Input
Amino acid sequence: MLNRRVLVIGATGSLGASMFPVHSAPSDSTYTSFHKNLPNQSWLRLYAGIQQEDTDTHSCHVDGNWPRDLVGALYRNGPGRMELGGRRYQHWFDGDGLVQKWSISHTGEVTHRSRLVHTHKFLHDEARNELSLVGFGTVSEDPLSASGPDAFNVGNISVLPRDNELLALWEGGSAWRMNADTLTTNGKLELSTESAGLPFSAHPRVEPNGTLWNFGYVSHMAALVIWRLDPGAREPKIWIIPRSPMTIPHDFVVTSKHLLLPLPPLHYEPDRAVEHSFIDAHEWHPDRSLDILVMSKDDPNSNFVIELPAAWFFHYSNAWEDEDGVIRFEGFSYDDPSLMYDAFRNVMRGKMPDSISDPQLVQFRVDTKKRNASVEALLDDQIACEFPCIDRRRSTERHEWLTMLAHDARPSSSKELGLFNSVARVHTVSSDSVLYTYPHHEIPEEHLFIPNRHGSQETDGWILGTSLDYVDEKTHLNLFEARETALELVARATLPRLMPLGLHGQFVGTA
Ligand SMILES: [Fe+2]
Output
C-alpha cells in the first residue's frame, strides 16, 4: 500500500502545501547490492560515503610551493553520508551534505576539516539511528513526520560565504547556516518572514557590486521564486512567477539587465507524485522546447520566453549583454536527463552506469530585442565537459576564459564511469584550450579560478581543485598556474584518506 502524504512548506512559507510522496522499500536492496559489489570494484569507494562524522582537523602533506599570496580556505560540499542503520539512499543526490574546508596558511601549510550539515533530517535520522528513506530520488514507505521540503533538505550541493558564516545550499528548500571556522551547523537561514521556507537554489549569482540573485521552484504550485538580496540589506526582495508546466532548473544566469532561466522539457506530472519519487514524478518530452525565460531585473514579472530545441542542462557559465541587447553565455548540453535517472541511481547500488551521455560545451546567443536565440557548439563533440568556472571578477560582464572539468576522449576507467579525468581552460572566442589530465584512478572534482593580486586579466591567477585517488585512497588539493599556453601543476596537498565524490565549492581568500 503506497501512502500519499501532503507536506507543507514551513509554517511561514507563503506558497502553502508541497506534496512529496513518502513510500518505502520493505528491505533495503540498495544497501545489500552496494556492499556486495564494493569489495570487487574500487571505484565504488567514491560513492561509499563516510560512516562516521570526523570532527578533527588534519594536516596534509604538501608538495611544491603554495604562492605566498594564496591564503584562505576552499570550502566544498557534496553528498557525503549515504547510509545509516543498514539503509542506503537510492540516488546519489540524496546523500547528506558533507562540507569540507581546505585551509591554506600564509606559510604554505594545508589542513583539512569536514562536517556533515546538521539539517532537520540529519538530526531526525540520528535520533533514530536509521535513514529516513525519502528524498529527491529515494522512495520509501516509512512515515516521516515532515512539514515541508526542508524536512528532507540535506544541504548537499554547494556553499555560499555570507556574513562571516558559510551557507550550505540545497535546491528545493532553505540554506543552512554553518560556522565558517568549525563547520558546525547553526540552523536554517531565515532572512524574512515572507521568505522563510522558500526554496533557495544552489547556484546564486553575485554581481560585482555584491547584489545577490537566486531562484527557486515549487513544483506542485507551478511557481518560480526569484530572490534579490542587496549588499547590506537584511531582508530580500521576493517575486513569485507562475510557471507551468514546471521543470527542474538547476542553474540560471544574470546580465546587467536581465535574468535568464532556461527551463528544459522535463515536466512535473502531479499525478505521478502519488507513487513515485520526486524525480520520477517528471517526464522528459524530447518533442517539446527548451524554454529560455527572459526576465527584467527591474521587475522579473516582466518576462518572455524564447524556445529552443529540447536539451538538458545542469550548469551555465556567466552571461553578458552587449549594447544591442544580445546575451551570450555557455552551458553543457545533454541529449536528455538520463544521467539523473540511470547513472546516479546505478552507482548507489554498486553498478556501472548503463549509458553515458556526454555533455557538450555550447554557447547561447539570445537576442532580447528580436526575441530569438541560437546555440552553437564550441568544441569537438568528442570532448565531454562540465562544472564551469569563470574569473568571478567578470561576473555579469564579458568573460573569455572558462575553467571546467573535461574528458580527453581517450578510453579510460573514468570514461567508463561517466566521470572526468582532466581539468581544462577554454577560450570562448577562439576555442583554444589547454588541458591537464590526471593520473589513472584519480578523479578530479570541480576546479575554480582564483585571481591573484598582480593583474586583472583572466589569466592572472591560479586554478585550484581537488582530486580523488580511489585506488590509493587519498584526496588531493591541486594548484595550477592559469597560463594561456599550459596548465602547470605547481603545488599539491594530500590528505591520506579518500573523501566522498562531491559537487561544488568556493574559495574565500584571507587578506
Ligand atoms: Fe550544480
Summary: The CA atoms of residues 167 and 370 lie 39 Å apart. Confidence is low (pLDDT under 50) at residues 1-26. Residues 157, 202-203, 250, 314-315, 503-504 surround fe (ii) ion (CB under 6 Å). Helices lie at 29-37, 120-128, 338-341, 343-346, 413-416.
